[in-house]
Design goal:
Structural class: mainly beta
Strand content: over 45%
Shape: globular
Distance between the termini: 5 Å
Helix content: 10-25%
């Protein structure tokens, strides 16, 4: 009996998926998975108001006995989760430091079901940017799911070119002129990750898509419109900046059905090659 050539096995695996074969399973990096815990009873939906925009985000504020103040805040943006261990409640006021130096913080009046407060951002000169928000307990998606949406898939790797339109002068801009984002679409839902460790959650629209994030302790809204199958234009709004952008798709990542088909073809090819060499 001939030995099955290892180089053939390696070539077949690399051509099918960037992963490892173990007990018949292939692990692919194309699929992004949302970490949202939509059924968690401590899950909130927050709306930040920036100029004329409403930016929705989700977080979980839950008891944690091991923490100093007995609370934990988990901010979930698609595949990215940030966990904060120092939120505290004094009387009816919630205070959450969002960074080590407490230059960004949330402060809100709290009832059983609702929060109403502000995101406070201070610079080195103690100037403070105030962004109002409200939040309520919710098990609904961040954005309402549309009944109809464009048939152009957003799944893929995108490079976007940004231009700063407006900025609060004493803040360092969040984005550079060239950025890369990875998107994964499932029906009308969309999640994304960013080379700056930003996570996104969003939905498709009639002519594009919309995403939001709070990963960097600031609300971010991305509004995109297709100009063709692989090109988008749009705007990015944060608490302190507004950008315009254009984007090009670099690659079409595999959908879940494509990945399943690749696994089947890989196993069939391995069996055929084994038959030829036994």
């Amino acid at each position: 009996m001939k030995l099955f050539p290892l180089k053939i096995l390696n070539a077949m695996m690399l051509s099918t998926c960037s992963g490892v074969l173990s007990l018949g399973l292939v692990s692919c990096s194309d699929v992004l998975t949302s970490l949202d815990q939509i059924d968690n009873p401590y899950r909130y939906k927050a709306i930040f108001r920036v100029k004329d925009k409403q930016i929705p985000v989700n977080f979980i504020l839950q008891p944690e006995q091991l923490n100093a103040y007995g609370l934990r805040l988990r901010i979930i943006d698609g595949p990215i989760l940030n966990q904060l261990e120092h939120p505290r409640i004094t009387h009816d006021t919630l205070y959450v430091p969002l960074d080590l130096h407490q230059t960004r913080s949330l402060k809100a009046l709290m009832t059983t079901e609702h929060l109403k407060g502000e995101l406070l951002t201070a610079d080195a000169d103690k100037q403070v940017l105030i962004t109002p928000f409200t939040a309520y307990r919710s098990n609904k998606p961040r954005f309402d799911l549309p009944e109809s949406y464009t048939d152009i898939s957003a799944t893929g790797t995108w490079t976007i070119q940004t231009a700063l339109v407006d900025s609060t002068a004493y803040y360092v801009p969040l984005l550079s002129t060239t950025e890369k984002i990875y998107l994964y679409q499932t029906a009308a839902s969309l999640i994304g990750s960013h080379t700056r460790d930003l996570g996104y959650d969003g939905v498709m629209t009639s002519d594009g898509f919309v995403l939001s994030s709070f990963t960097k302790a600031r609300p971010i809204l991305v509004e995109a419109t297709y100009t063709d199958q692989n090109t988008i234009t749009g705007s990015i709004t944060t608490d302190s900046e507004t950008y315009s952008f254009t984007g090009k798709r670099n690659s079409q990542l595999k959908k879940a059905s494509d990945t399943s088909k690749s696994v089947f073809n890989l196993l069939r090819g391995l069996f055929g090659a084994y038959q030829e060499h036994k």
